[in-house]
Amino acid sequence: HDPGIDFSLKGSGDLHSKYPAVQCDISINNIQPNSLHLAKTNIAYSGNINIDFPSTDPDNLQGKLLIEKSVIVTDSQKIAVDSIKLIAGKTDTSQYLRLYADVIQAQLQGKYKLTQLASVVNQLINPYFSTTTSDSNNVKAAPYNFTVNVDVTNKPLLKTLAPTLKRLDPIHFAANFNSEKGWNADLVSPMIIYGEDRVQNFQVHVKPSSKSLDIQTSVQQFKSGKSLALYQTSFNTSIADNKINFILNVHDKASKEKYNVTGLFQQPVKNKYVLSLKPDDLLLNYQKWQIDKNN
Predict the structure, then answer these.
(1) This prediction's pTM
(2) Which of these, 171, 175, 234, 248, lies nearest to 208 by C-alpha position?
Protein backbone atom coordinates (compact mmCIF):
# COMPACT_ATOMS: atom_id res chain seq x y z
CA HIS A 1 0.00 0.00 0.00
CA ASP A 2 1.46 3.34 -1.08
CA PRO A 3 0.27 6.26 1.11
CA GLY A 4 0.76 8.57 -1.86
CA ILE A 5 -2.06 6.99 -3.85
CA ASP A 6 -5.37 5.47 -2.76
CA PHE A 7 -8.14 4.82 -5.27
CA SER A 8 -10.57 2.19 -6.51
CA LEU A 9 -11.52 1.50 -10.12
CA LYS A 10 -14.41 -0.43 -11.61
CA GLY A 11 -14.83 -0.57 -15.35
CA SER A 12 -15.39 -2.47 -18.55
CA GLY A 13 -14.60 -2.09 -22.24
CA ASP A 14 -15.11 -3.58 -25.67
CA LEU A 15 -11.73 -3.97 -27.37
CA HIS A 16 -12.96 -5.69 -30.54
CA SER A 17 -13.03 -2.50 -32.62
CA LYS A 18 -10.29 0.00 -33.53
CA TYR A 19 -11.86 2.52 -31.15
CA PRO A 20 -13.05 0.60 -28.09
CA ALA A 21 -16.04 1.42 -25.93
CA VAL A 22 -15.00 2.40 -22.40
CA GLN A 23 -16.95 2.61 -19.15
CA CYS A 24 -15.40 3.02 -15.73
CA ASP A 25 -15.88 4.60 -12.32
CA ILE A 26 -12.84 5.84 -10.41
CA SER A 27 -13.06 6.82 -6.76
CA ILE A 28 -9.94 8.67 -5.68
CA ASN A 29 -9.52 8.92 -1.93
CA ASN A 30 -6.06 10.44 -2.11
CA ILE A 31 -3.37 11.17 -4.68
CA GLN A 32 -0.21 13.02 -3.66
CA PRO A 33 1.99 13.65 -6.73
CA ASN A 34 4.92 14.78 -4.59
CA SER A 35 4.95 11.43 -2.75
CA LEU A 36 5.11 9.73 -6.15
CA HIS A 37 7.97 12.04 -7.22
CA LEU A 38 5.73 13.60 -9.88
CA ALA A 39 5.74 17.09 -8.36
CA LYS A 40 7.93 19.11 -6.03
CA THR A 41 5.14 20.97 -4.23
CA ASN A 42 2.83 19.47 -1.63
CA ILE A 43 -0.56 18.87 -3.21
CA ALA A 44 -3.26 16.26 -2.74
CA TYR A 45 -6.36 15.44 -4.76
CA SER A 46 -9.54 13.48 -4.08
CA GLY A 47 -12.69 13.07 -6.15
CA ASN A 48 -14.88 10.81 -8.26
CA ILE A 49 -14.50 10.28 -12.00
CA ASN A 50 -17.07 8.63 -14.26
CA ILE A 51 -16.12 7.77 -17.85
CA ASP A 52 -18.70 6.42 -20.29
CA PHE A 53 -17.83 6.50 -24.00
CA PRO A 54 -19.66 4.04 -26.28
CA SER A 55 -17.45 5.40 -29.09
CA THR A 56 -13.89 6.69 -28.62
CA ASP A 57 -13.40 7.43 -32.32
CA PRO A 58 -12.24 11.08 -32.15
CA ASP A 59 -14.12 11.90 -35.36
CA ASN A 60 -17.29 10.24 -34.06
CA LEU A 61 -16.89 10.77 -30.34
CA GLN A 62 -19.89 9.86 -28.19
CA GLY A 63 -20.13 9.71 -24.44
CA LYS A 64 -19.45 11.67 -21.28
CA LEU A 65 -16.80 12.41 -18.71
CA LEU A 66 -17.98 13.51 -15.26
CA ILE A 67 -15.68 14.66 -12.46
CA GLU A 68 -17.40 15.28 -9.12
CA LYS A 69 -16.58 16.09 -5.49
CA SER A 70 -13.07 17.22 -6.36
CA VAL A 71 -10.97 18.61 -3.52
CA ILE A 72 -7.44 19.97 -3.98
CA VAL A 73 -5.35 20.52 -0.86
CA THR A 74 -2.08 22.43 -0.77
CA ASP A 75 0.08 23.73 2.06
CA SER A 76 -1.88 26.98 2.17
CA GLN A 77 -5.43 26.22 1.07
CA LYS A 78 -8.18 23.72 0.43
CA ILE A 79 -10.07 24.11 -2.85
CA ALA A 80 -13.42 22.45 -3.54
CA VAL A 81 -14.22 22.28 -7.26
CA ASP A 82 -17.74 22.00 -8.63
CA SER A 83 -18.61 19.28 -11.11
CA ILE A 84 -16.79 19.18 -14.44
CA LYS A 85 -18.73 17.60 -17.27
CA LEU A 86 -17.63 16.86 -20.83
CA ILE A 87 -20.32 15.57 -23.20
CA ALA A 88 -19.81 14.42 -26.79
CA GLY A 89 -22.58 13.36 -29.15
CA LYS A 90 -24.43 14.05 -32.35
CA THR A 91 -27.83 15.00 -33.72
CA ASP A 92 -29.37 14.25 -37.11
CA THR A 93 -27.47 17.14 -38.71
CA SER A 94 -24.39 17.79 -36.57
CA GLN A 95 -22.15 16.66 -33.75
CA TYR A 96 -21.12 18.46 -30.59
CA LEU A 97 -18.60 18.63 -27.79
CA ARG A 98 -19.68 20.51 -24.64
CA LEU A 99 -17.77 21.42 -21.52
CA TYR A 100 -19.46 22.52 -18.32
CA ALA A 101 -17.16 23.61 -15.50
CA ASP A 102 -17.18 25.99 -12.57
CA VAL A 103 -15.89 29.11 -14.32
CA ILE A 104 -16.09 28.12 -17.97
CA GLN A 105 -18.65 26.74 -20.39
CA ALA A 106 -17.64 25.87 -23.94
CA GLN A 107 -19.29 24.27 -26.94
CA LEU A 108 -18.07 23.02 -30.29
CA GLN A 109 -20.99 22.18 -32.59
CA GLY A 110 -21.55 21.47 -36.26
CA LYS A 111 -19.81 19.47 -38.96
CA TYR A 112 -16.16 18.83 -38.09
CA LYS A 113 -13.48 16.22 -37.49
CA LEU A 114 -11.49 16.56 -34.28
CA THR A 115 -8.45 14.99 -35.91
CA GLN A 116 -8.45 17.74 -38.58
CA LEU A 117 -8.98 20.83 -36.42
CA ALA A 118 -5.26 21.66 -36.45
CA SER A 119 -5.32 21.56 -40.27
CA VAL A 120 -8.43 23.74 -40.29
CA VAL A 121 -6.74 26.39 -38.12
CA ASN A 122 -3.64 26.29 -40.32
CA GLN A 123 -5.72 26.77 -43.48
CA LEU A 124 -7.51 29.76 -41.94
CA ILE A 125 -4.24 31.73 -41.88
CA ASN A 126 -2.26 30.36 -44.82
CA PRO A 127 -4.23 32.10 -47.59
CA TYR A 128 -3.10 35.42 -46.11
CA PHE A 129 0.22 34.65 -44.40
CA SER A 130 2.00 31.36 -45.01
CA THR A 131 2.99 29.57 -41.82
CA THR A 132 4.25 26.31 -43.35
CA THR A 133 7.70 25.63 -44.70
CA SER A 134 6.53 23.28 -47.43
CA ASP A 135 3.36 22.72 -49.40
CA SER A 136 3.63 19.05 -48.48
CA ASN A 137 2.81 19.99 -44.88
CA ASN A 138 -0.64 21.21 -45.89
CA VAL A 139 -3.19 18.49 -45.10
CA LYS A 140 -6.48 19.15 -46.84
CA ALA A 141 -9.35 19.13 -44.34
CA ALA A 142 -12.72 17.63 -45.19
CA PRO A 143 -15.61 20.12 -45.66
CA TYR A 144 -16.58 21.68 -42.33
CA ASN A 145 -19.16 24.01 -40.86
CA PHE A 146 -19.05 24.51 -37.10
CA THR A 147 -19.27 27.08 -34.32
CA VAL A 148 -17.26 27.61 -31.15
CA ASN A 149 -18.66 29.40 -28.09
CA VAL A 150 -16.85 29.97 -24.82
CA ASP A 151 -18.08 31.84 -21.73
CA VAL A 152 -16.02 32.61 -18.63
CA THR A 153 -17.80 33.83 -15.49
CA ASN A 154 -16.60 34.95 -12.09
CA LYS A 155 -17.15 32.24 -9.49
CA PRO A 156 -15.77 31.66 -5.97
CA LEU A 157 -13.18 29.25 -7.38
CA LEU A 158 -11.48 32.12 -9.22
CA LYS A 159 -11.24 34.10 -6.00
CA THR A 160 -9.60 31.11 -4.36
CA LEU A 161 -7.10 30.64 -7.17
CA ALA A 162 -6.50 34.37 -7.64
CA PRO A 163 -7.11 36.16 -4.31
CA THR A 164 -6.32 39.61 -5.75
CA LEU A 165 -8.98 39.30 -8.46
CA LYS A 166 -11.46 42.05 -7.55
CA ARG A 167 -13.75 41.94 -10.57
CA LEU A 168 -14.28 39.87 -13.69
CA ASP A 169 -17.32 40.57 -15.84
CA PRO A 170 -18.45 37.69 -18.11
CA ILE A 171 -16.06 37.03 -21.01
CA HIS A 172 -17.56 35.78 -24.27
CA PHE A 173 -15.91 34.25 -27.33
CA ALA A 174 -17.83 33.21 -30.44
CA ALA A 175 -16.58 32.00 -33.82
CA ASN A 176 -18.00 30.45 -36.99
CA PHE A 177 -15.98 28.31 -39.38
CA ASN A 178 -17.25 27.28 -42.81
CA SER A 179 -15.06 25.72 -45.50
CA GLU A 180 -17.15 27.37 -48.25
CA LYS A 181 -18.21 30.72 -46.72
CA GLY A 182 -15.16 31.54 -44.60
CA TRP A 183 -14.96 32.35 -40.92
CA ASN A 184 -15.12 35.07 -38.27
CA ALA A 185 -14.42 35.37 -34.55
CA ASP A 186 -15.23 37.81 -31.75
CA LEU A 187 -13.94 38.15 -28.18
CA VAL A 188 -15.44 40.58 -25.66
CA SER A 189 -14.18 41.14 -22.12
CA PRO A 190 -16.02 44.06 -20.44
CA MET A 191 -13.98 44.45 -17.26
CA ILE A 192 -11.15 42.77 -15.36
CA ILE A 193 -9.66 44.25 -12.19
CA TYR A 194 -6.76 42.20 -10.83
CA GLY A 195 -4.92 43.77 -7.94
CA GLU A 196 -3.87 47.21 -9.22
CA ASP A 197 -4.29 46.21 -12.86
CA ARG A 198 -7.44 47.15 -14.78
CA VAL A 199 -8.58 46.15 -18.29
CA GLN A 200 -11.82 47.74 -19.46
CA ASN A 201 -13.79 46.84 -22.59
CA PHE A 202 -11.21 44.64 -24.32
CA GLN A 203 -12.41 43.42 -27.71
CA VAL A 204 -11.02 41.41 -30.62
CA HIS A 205 -12.87 41.06 -33.93
CA VAL A 206 -11.55 38.89 -36.78
CA LYS A 207 -13.12 39.46 -40.20
CA PRO A 208 -11.54 37.61 -43.11
CA SER A 209 -12.46 38.34 -46.74
CA SER A 210 -11.39 36.97 -50.09
CA LYS A 211 -8.49 39.44 -50.22
CA SER A 212 -7.36 40.02 -46.62
CA LEU A 213 -7.64 38.96 -43.01
CA ASP A 214 -8.62 41.96 -40.88
CA ILE A 215 -8.13 41.88 -37.10
CA GLN A 216 -9.39 44.74 -34.93
CA THR A 217 -8.20 44.85 -31.32
CA SER A 218 -9.21 47.57 -28.87
CA VAL A 219 -9.26 48.36 -25.18
CA GLN A 220 -11.01 51.33 -23.64
CA GLN A 221 -8.67 51.51 -20.66
CA PHE A 222 -5.62 49.62 -19.47
CA LYS A 223 -3.96 50.52 -16.17
CA SER A 224 -1.12 48.80 -14.37
CA GLY A 225 -0.65 50.28 -10.94
CA LYS A 226 0.41 53.93 -11.05
CA SER A 227 3.12 53.49 -13.68
CA LEU A 228 1.12 52.78 -16.83
CA ALA A 229 -2.23 54.02 -18.12
CA LEU A 230 -3.49 53.65 -21.70
CA TYR A 231 -6.81 54.94 -23.03
CA GLN A 232 -8.77 54.27 -26.22
CA THR A 233 -6.07 51.96 -27.49
CA SER A 234 -6.46 50.11 -30.77
CA PHE A 235 -4.27 47.71 -32.72
CA ASN A 236 -5.63 46.95 -36.17
CA THR A 237 -4.04 44.69 -38.77
CA SER A 238 -4.76 43.76 -42.35
CA ILE A 239 -3.04 40.58 -43.54
CA ALA A 240 -2.62 39.62 -47.20
CA ASP A 241 0.09 38.27 -49.53
CA ASN A 242 2.44 37.47 -46.63
CA LYS A 243 2.25 41.08 -45.46
CA ILE A 244 0.82 42.42 -42.21
CA ASN A 245 -0.07 46.11 -42.28
CA PHE A 246 -0.66 47.36 -38.74
CA ILE A 247 -1.67 50.53 -36.90
CA LEU A 248 -1.20 51.07 -33.16
CA ASN A 249 -3.05 54.07 -31.76
CA VAL A 250 -3.13 55.25 -28.12
CA HIS A 251 -4.90 58.23 -26.50
CA ASP A 252 -4.58 59.86 -23.12
CA LYS A 253 -7.24 60.41 -20.47
CA ALA A 254 -8.42 63.60 -22.23
CA SER A 255 -8.86 61.67 -25.52
CA LYS A 256 -5.85 63.37 -27.09
CA GLU A 257 -3.77 61.21 -29.42
CA LYS A 258 -0.52 60.23 -27.68
CA TYR A 259 0.97 57.44 -29.77
CA ASN A 260 0.51 56.35 -33.37
CA VAL A 261 2.68 53.71 -34.99
CA THR A 262 2.00 52.43 -38.50
CA GLY A 263 4.09 49.68 -39.98
CA LEU A 264 4.52 46.64 -42.16
CA PHE A 265 5.63 43.16 -41.16
CA GLN A 266 6.25 40.94 -44.16
CA GLN A 267 7.66 37.62 -45.28
CA PRO A 268 9.28 38.24 -48.68
CA VAL A 269 10.48 34.62 -48.82
CA LYS A 270 9.66 31.70 -46.57
CA ASN A 271 11.20 31.96 -43.09
CA LYS A 272 12.59 35.44 -43.72
CA TYR A 273 10.82 38.34 -42.02
CA VAL A 274 11.15 42.11 -42.38
CA LEU A 275 9.69 44.81 -40.10
CA SER A 276 9.48 48.46 -41.21
CA LEU A 277 7.70 51.55 -39.90
CA LYS A 278 5.88 54.05 -42.07
CA PRO A 279 7.49 57.46 -41.46
CA ASP A 280 4.56 59.77 -42.22
CA ASP A 281 2.34 58.78 -39.28
CA LEU A 282 4.80 58.16 -36.46
CA LEU A 283 3.74 59.84 -33.19
CA LEU A 284 5.55 59.11 -29.92
CA ASN A 285 4.47 60.73 -26.66
CA TYR A 286 2.59 63.49 -28.55
CA GLN A 287 5.65 64.27 -30.71
CA LYS A 288 5.85 63.63 -34.45
CA TRP A 289 8.95 61.72 -35.47
CA GLN A 290 10.73 61.60 -38.80
CA ILE A 291 12.51 58.39 -39.76
CA ASP A 292 14.15 57.11 -42.91
CA LYS A 293 11.73 55.71 -45.47
CA ASN A 294 14.01 52.71 -45.92
CA ASN A 295 14.09 51.76 -42.24
Answers:
(1) 0.87
(2) 175
